[in-house]
Each structure stands twice: as structure tokens, then as C-alpha cells.
Amino acid sequence: MRPELVLQLTIDGLLLGGVFALAALGLNVIFGVTRIVNLAHGNIVVLTALSAAIAFQRFGITPIEGLPVAMVGGALLGVIIDRLILRRLPEDAPTAETTSLLLTFGVSYFLVGLSLAIFTGDFRSVAYLTGSWLVGPLSIGKSRFLAFAVAIVIAAMLGVLLRSTKIGRALRAASQNLDGARACGVSIDRMRTLSFGLGSAIAAAAGALLSMIYAVNPDSGSQFTLIAFSVVALGGLGSYAGALLGSAILGLAVSFVGFFGNTQLGAMMPYVVFILVLLFRPSGLLGKSVA
User: Which residues, in sequence order, are CB contacts of 108 under 8 Å at separation 6+?
Assistant: First the structure.
């Protein structure tokens, strides 16, 4: 195998993994505080990607220019889902977790129907920054590199928010110990709403960036939900560093398997990774084992 081919596939995989990381970080933020498995996460990604495609096609607004609006819209959608639907969950934890799966499953199908009504079932993408830069024997896709760079900036900003601000410390406290955070004066209700809004805003950002890489239709939401779950499961639930590591591994797997096998096999990798992690490392690479 030629070294330049390995390097090319590695670059492609890492560029893709950077955007996967953004979707997974949004899921991690929501689960960390609420312990809710949001099955509608991928639908928020797809809804934003379709909106970005329409905005570019009709008004010439690029996904980067529309990114702030997309994130605000995603945050509002997340707050609405939390306030109007998920607040009805029972207090009993096991019952709440089961009911949250059913509720977010219903929200997922509602968003699919809404997307079909607005955008029809056509596949859409954003043909922005087409072509590649040639660096010696390597080819770096312009749109993939831009999406990767913006994703890394947003992920870094999220890291700073969680570690260096009062709100971020409150979110981390709520994710680690609800009773302890409540005893310290942290409003758990506000943190729940904030985590859902923040996680959905990050999902929307991922959708805007993925519109430059993937062609999606309203039924693509489950694909991106699974990608986010695979990354989070691989890195470890609640682990920021684990999400980054898991996304890099998954991106590399998709790149190498897609090249040496075929595109269909590459698209199967999130499913394969998810199953293997559940079988052999349920806590993830950087997650803590639970007895």
C-alpha cells in the first residue's frame, strides 16, 4: 500500500470525523444533564441541512453565513421540545428513561413528516466550494476542509464554555451529581432546558456543515442519529475527549472501508462500530465502567 494513499485516506477520514464530532458533542451535552436519549437528534441535523440547501439554492446564503441563524433556530427547537414535551416525564428515573425513548421517537417521526411537508422527499445538498486543493500528491476537498475547520472552532468554543464559565460549570455539576448541584443552588430545571437548547444548537451547526458534504432527504435523520450514538458509545457517554476520539476513529473507518470495500460498506461502519462497542466495551474508550 502506497504511503501517500494511506495519508490521503487518513486526511479524508479525519476531516469527516471533525463534523461527526460536532453532532456527537450535542448529543453528549443533552444526555449528560438530562439522561435522555434523544432519538430526534439526527432529525434536527437533517432539518437544518435541508434548510441550508434551500437557503443556498434560493437566496445564495452559504451554510457558513447562515450558521448563526441555524444555531439559534436549533436552540429554540430544543427548548420547545424540552419545555412542551419532555417536562411531562415522570420523576421515577427508570420510567422516565423508557418514556423519553418513546417521546423522542415520536418527535423524530413528527420532524420527518414536517420535513417532508416542507422540503418533499428529494435529496438535497449545498454545492459550495466544490473542487479540491492539491498539496503534492494529496487532494484536500475544499468543502470538507471548511466544514472541519468550522466544526473544530465550535467544538473548542464549547470546551471553553463548559470549563471556563459559570454556566458551563453549572452544567458539568448537574451532569455529574444532580443532588449535589441542587444543594449548591444550581437550578436543575434551567440546566435541563439549557442543555437541550445547547445540544440542539450544536446539532443544527453540524447539519449546516454536513449539507456541504452529504446529500440528505427527510428520511436521513436516523442515519445521523446512529452516527452520533456510535461516536458517543465509542468514546464514552458524557466524555468530551471521548467524543473527539470516537469521531476520529469512526471517520477513519468510513474512509478506509469505503475505499478498499465500497461506499455501501463504508456507510455500514457506524452500525458495525456501535454493535462492537456494545459487545466488547460498553463503557466506551474513555468512559467509566458502571457496576
Answer: 39, 40, 42, 43, 221, 222, 225
